[in-house]
Write a structure and sequence with these properties.
- The chain is mostly beta strands and about 140 residues long.
- The protein contains 2 helices and 11 strands, in the order E-E-E-H-E-E-E-E-E-H-E-E-E.
- About 10% of the residues lie in helices and about 40% in strands.
- The model has no long low-confidence stretch (mean pLDDT about 90).
Length: about 140
């Protein structure tokens, strides 16, 4: 995730960049990782990174019921059902449970809604909205 902002009343704008495997292998010192075997594994690993050449997408929800940003290290934990991989549409989730218990949003008001999820490098973004987002490639 590059950016997330509420641009005006009930409008959410998210900018996400594609990450890729970096060609740069970081140097790991014995101070950073004292165990030689782990240092060796890390020397053979390449980080995932966003570069200036990474594609960026703008995702705009003109109206939303709720959204949350969660550190990806703490996401998950219940049985969820969804379609998609990094961009998801959920039919069952903890966030939908929250909407049902923590808000007065229902199928009657404001109307049928959907849980959209975006799995980023360090965050999980959950959005519940009546309408699908408008997605634009803003550079390639």
């Amino acid at each position: 995730m590059i950016e997330i902002q509420e641009t005006y009343k009930d409008c959410l704008r998210i900018v996400i960049a594609e990450a890729g495997v970096s060609d740069v292998v970081p140097e790991i010192s014995s101070v950073e990782e004292p165990v030689e075997a782990l240092r060796e594994i890390l020397r053979e690993s390449k980080p995932i990174a966003v570069t200036d050449n990474s594609a960026r997408y703008e995702i705009v929800f003109d109206d939303y019921i709720a959204y949350a940003v969660t550190n990806e290290s703490y996401a998950g934990g219940i049985e969820e059902k969804f379609e998609g991989r990094l961009a998801r549409v959920y039919s069952k989730s903890a966030f939908l449970n929250y909407i049902g218990q923590g808000t007065f949003a229902t199928e009657d008001y404001p109307g049928p809604f959907v849980h959209y999820g975006f799995c980023c490098l360090n965050q999980i973004i959950d959005v519940v909205s009546e309408k699908p987002p408008i997605v634009k490639l803003i550079n390639a």
